[in-house]
Fold each of these.
Amino acid sequence: MRVYNTLTKKVEELKPREAGKVQMFVCGPTVYDLIHIGNARTFVFFDAFSKYLRSKGLAVEYLQNITDIDDKIITKAKTERKSAKDIAENYEKEFMADMNALGVTGVTRYARATDHIPQVIEQVKKLRDKGHAYQTKDGWYFDVKTFDGYGKLSGRTAEMAEDGVSRIDDGVGKRNKADFALWKHPNSALPPDSSGNANALMRMIDGEPAWYSEELGWGRPGWHVEDTAITEHYFGPQYDIHGGGQDLMFPHHEAEIAQQESASGKAPFVNYWVHVAFLINKGQKMAKSVGNFTTVRRLTEQYSKEIIRQYLFSADHRSPLEYSEEIMESFRFAQDNLKKTLRRMAVYSERGAFNVDAPGSSDRLSAISAEISAALEDNFNTASAIGLFNSMVALVNQLIDEKKFDAKAYDVFKSTLDSVNAVLGIIPEARPVDVPSDIADLMRRREEARAAVDWPGADAIRKELESRGYTIDDTPYGPILSEK
Ligand SMILES: [Zn+2]
């Protein structure tokens, strides 16, 4: 398959470092609040992407970090008079609940920053030993001037960091504006620990969690280094795919490259960088800081995961995606229609409606199925794949009406539907309605009335069924009951 690689700015053939195996890392959440649907777009995209690679027979190791130590967590803990650990644990739980509600099941391993402090310390020490890190009174910093490749991902240079919109570390005594923290000392320092238990000993220092390292002193990981410490631990210094939201490209991902390539001396750190664009709400990028966001929690209370996923896949992942209630409602409407088609097909199939001879019908469906595969192979174009799938559903409806939908066509449709759903997770469950016996009895009596050309009698029964919460569609293959 072909993917757009941010690093080379080209669509390239995806070639894993080791045949048959893909190592993919995606930046996870900072667990200090509920996530919004702009964040969810990234997680849902890579969930489907990993499932697609697996469906092609690749063994995918999908790793995601959980940033459970961060200034935002500490600030929230102080405001709410809780410990940073409590805040992080709580919102990690909420994050997992959201992922579950969205049907995100593709991640192989979640890795918390605080479970990898020894690995962080090791990496910072390595950077210090190689002359890439220096200490100020605030902590250890990476000197971007010591890494020639700084800016190769985002096209932004160290000087351009001046206009950095996102999370540039402030600090007194930094050599360059773009230098970033590797190890942050707590505000009030403690004397060196005398217990002899050097690494990974956590203490609370004035509300700030800190770990002790003999060489680095008390501190906590900078934001960028946790990712590379974690990926080096599980994948080694080089791996296949790094994903994340577009806004993480600079400075976060640029910093990751600088750290890992400097620490290992091996390049490229990652072969393919894949970035997912943001959501637009009321003309602006959806963001916590703008306040125009909708939480995943709120959306999953209103819409099924299939509706939300279909919406999130409705634009190419590199294009911004518009959000509004009206747009969500249109996806709800489309899902209701799809559900109706699927239910109709299940009933028709039961009633033997597809026992017809319709040469050529299955070929027409197979052709669309092949186009869907081609769309996914082409930079995982979900929007195009879903559009094609919808056209397939329309063709199915048409063929059924023309009595040209045979068992072979049904098989093609069913297997396409299953494979699309296994990857994208967009097909609603359409179980046939459970018909209570008294309702079945009414249905039978109505059919008898119709057969006897007793229209007033049949109408009266229809009204009764409606008053009990059902609607009836009369089709060429008999009536189909739905719940209102
Ligand atoms: Zn990250």
Amino acid sequence: MKIGEFLRLARKEKNITLRQLSDLTHISFSQLGKIEREEHKPTRENSLKIAEALQIDQTILFKLLGYQHENIEKSHSVDPLLRYKVLVRDRFKCKVCGEGPPKVSLEVDLILPKANGGEIKPDNLVCLCDQCLRGRTLFIANEGLEKDLLFAKNKIRTTL
Ligand SMILES: [Zn+2]
């Protein structure tokens, strides 16, 4: 089944109009229509919003979309000491935008996600702010991990 058809059926089953779904998700009425007509593939972020509004299992939705569930490892899976060492190495600044606290909060993220064989070790860890991390998640969902890693390789120094 295609994603648009799947979403339309899920929405009808819940007796929710396109307009109501738009209000629930803050995604425009016209964009939702395009998604249901297969004219537009929803981003990972919008897929999550729709899944939440329609109470659909995210895993099913991502499968239909071809997105990997949980592409990005959360920082809390990193040992606190190692996390701290990475923060020191990266001078408590986001490696993408250069911002640090108190303006942004920092996360330690895996460069290559665990699901793709990435290990929790210094040369695979990087300090990112929450905003860049969010942007990165969306980037991977839209452009793919390979493209993301291409950028990361040139920009990130990862030795402790
Ligand atoms: Zn940043």
